[in-house]
Amino acid sequence: MSPQALRELIAQGKFDRPTSGECPGYVQANMVALPREYAKSFEKFARANAKAIPVLEVIDEGFTSKIMAKGANILTDIPRYNILKNGVVVEEVTDITPYYQEDLVFFLIGCSFSFENALIQNGMPLRYVDEKKNVSMYRTNIKLNEVDGFSGEMVVSMRPIKKEKVADACVVTSHFPRMHGSPIHVGYPEMIGVKDIANPDYGDSVLIKEDEIPLFWPCGVTPQNVITKMKLPFAITHAPGHMFVSDVKDSEYYE
Amino acid sequence: MSPQALRELIAQGKFDRPTSGECPGYVQANMVALPREYAKSFEKFARANAKAIPVLEVIDEGFTSKIMAKGANILTDIPRYNILKNGVVVEEVTDITPYYQEDLVFFLIGCSFSFENALIQNGMPLRYVDEKKNVSMYRTNIKLNEVDGFSGEMVVSMRPIKKEKVADACVVTSHFPRMHGSPIHVGYPEMIGVKDIANPDYGDSVLIKEDEIPLFWPCGVTPQNVITKMKLPFAITHAPGHMFVSDVKDSEYYE
User: Which of A67, A83, A140, B216, CA to CA, is 20 to 30 A from B208?
Assistant: First the structure.
């Protein structure tokens, strides 16, 4: 299915699942929408934490993408959204048209789903994709660089990788620096403050086999964690794992 | 010091220590010498296990290097050698001139010391280099591909790396595929049959700090392990950690 076709299904409310494994080879993006008064500071914060929050596009007029998927409607073309008030998710919805305000600025942020295809093509199948689950995501103790009052800790996604493929996974994903790049941590979940690997903070739990090692990549859910901690009065984000699927090929972001 | 100057000291018996950290930026090599009747099979075995045993030069006439250090005398220019009879190290010597036989074939094999400089330059200091120790090496349960009766398990070298630098270490060393390339294993020593990380099978023990993870690279001591297991009647190798320092820059092997 083309990204356009998938986004059309999503806009029609016919697809509201996690997007991992969909439209292989196309870049997927996290979304954060903030009132204009916070947008400049958030952008600076993102740039100071570019491995966790790599900004791909800023839409500060209207709600239509100009770079990642020309003409796509950010209000309807993501499968699920979280509405946050004072840092708390008050609602999960499939269409944010009713919540649109003219002063909202939308950020599209690189997502590790974009390099899944490269991992699979290089002999690293992904269990959560095969099982049509959401990726496992965890809050960590990895501190972000503080900017203009924005601060907090990184959220990571986890993929179990066969032990003899761990270095390959680091190398393959390093070629996608704007999709978080190489892992931020390898093995030993407790070293980054993940206490129970079987109970992710977001997404689904996946099995880690005896000959596999958990690899952790920075995750675009990080801003939600920050917004929650800051108790920002209002924000909209994608729901973890439910991404904006763009028209841009992952090869265009291969460095 | 230039590699030529170091080799001269070595030939004079004035340097017989491990060579890690010496002549940074120059390729170092493992050495294996075998009677001609085993040489062809060993070469095939090496090529079938190129990540562990990457052959850089074969000297099958005389004992002088033509590629890695033109004119260097393989019999005197390595700090220490092991003499193996029936697979047992019967002597460790600093000069093998008395053991030379016309039918010996010498193999120079890529060594991970060659990418130490790249690790250090990329912000990964190496404790054993700083402490002027030999690198820690371990026998593993990683099976080699069997060829013509040559078989056995891989030997690995271990370097503790800061947890946030693990992926970088994989990426940096992946650019030196003929010096073993990226790690064969990351963390969890027991997964590759290393039971006591504090007691290496070759070299010195080094501290692994709380915020560090042990990374394992294939090691050119692997052939010695194979020769020992096969109980080959006669062989000469370098002593683990005591390498042939060549005149070739590591940048020439950067891919």
Answer: A140
